[in-house]
Recover the amino acids of this structure.
């Protein structure tokens, strides 16, 4: 008979989040980490972003480290953590970074029409969108404890 989970095992259960729940979380936040490979090194940098439909986009300056995101495989990750409750959630958007700064197609124009004021200094004229995204997420929760006797 098991005495229950040990501290090493944890007691939280992982629940997948559907795409609609992931998009709602993405729309409710403004900052995530963009993950990409620069040369042969993986990097993760904070960016503020906007969601248009199911597209996530951010702004940057030409000539920055984020140049590596254009036409490369990228990911954007956001999360919410409650350390005290040992619960949380994460959302991951993966796809190809696409520079939509000067593109004249409807999708690119809709992305650029979204209100996004960069937090970082500089003009941040270049728009990068995550094209053809895969959006996944999960949440860890703990089962409610037994009622008080």
């Amino acid at each position: 008979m098991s005495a229950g989970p040990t501290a090493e095992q944890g007691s939280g259960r992982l629940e997948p989040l559907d795409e609609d729940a992931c998009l709602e979380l993405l729309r409710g936040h403004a900052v995530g980490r963009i993950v990409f490979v620069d040369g042969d090194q993986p990097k993760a940098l904070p960016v503020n972003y906007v969601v248009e439909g199911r597209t996530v986009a951010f702004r940057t300056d030409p000539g920055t480290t984020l140049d590596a995101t254009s036409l490369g495989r990228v990911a954007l990750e956001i999360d919410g953590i409650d350390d005290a409750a040992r619960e949380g959630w994460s959302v991951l958007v993966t796809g190809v970074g696409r520079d939509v700064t000067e593109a004249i197609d409807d999708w690119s124009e809709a992305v650029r029409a979204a209100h996004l004021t960069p937090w970082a200094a500089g003009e941040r004229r270049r728009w990068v969108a995550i094209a053809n995204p895969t959006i996944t997420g999960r949440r860890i929760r703990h089962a409610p404890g037994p009622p008080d006797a």
About this structure: Residues 28 and 133 are 18 Å apart (CA to CA).
